[in-house]
Amino acid sequence: HVQLVESGGGSVQAGGSVRLSCAATRYTVGRYCQAWFRQGPGKEREWVADVARDGTTDYSDSVKGRFIISRDDAKNTVFLRLNSLEPEDTAAYYCVRSSGYWSFDYWGQGTQVTVS
């Protein structure tokens, strides 16, 4: 069955960087739009970034210029590089497959990023 497995989270100091990975199984990531969402403590889940099938990327205003989403088709993996981290970036980060416009059908279990 389809699975998305995130890794790479952890604790980091403000101003630091971390790279999250999302390994997909049972489908080809390059054939779907892939997104990252996050949910901070006491906050609603929010969309962070996505990479379309053609490689086009898009970012929320809160992370634009600091985060980078990418995809490695050979590894069937999606990445999210988090730079210039701020305490407000503390959240569980989720890798998600898009099944259509603003429609998401598979979610990973999440990986925690804590910025202090």
Strand content: over 45%
In round numbers, the mean pLDDT is: 97
How are helices and strands ordered from N to C?
EEEEEEEEEEE
Estimate percent helicity. Answer: under 10%
Main beta sheet, described?
Answer: 7 strands, mixed
* Apparent shape: globular
**Radius of gyration, in angstroms, nearest whole number:** 13 Å
Question: What is the CA–CA distance across the termini?
Answer: 37 Å
| Unreliable stretches covering 5 or more consecutive residues | none
Secondary structure: number of strands: 11
Describe this structure in words.
By secondary structure, this protein is mostly beta strands. Strands 2, 4, 5, 6, 9, 10 and 11 form a seven-stranded mixed β-sheet that branches. The radius of gyration is 13 Å and the shape is globular.
Keywords:
mainly beta; globular; seven-stranded mixed sheet; 116 residues; 0% helix
Summarize the structure.
The chain has 116 residues and is an all-beta fold.
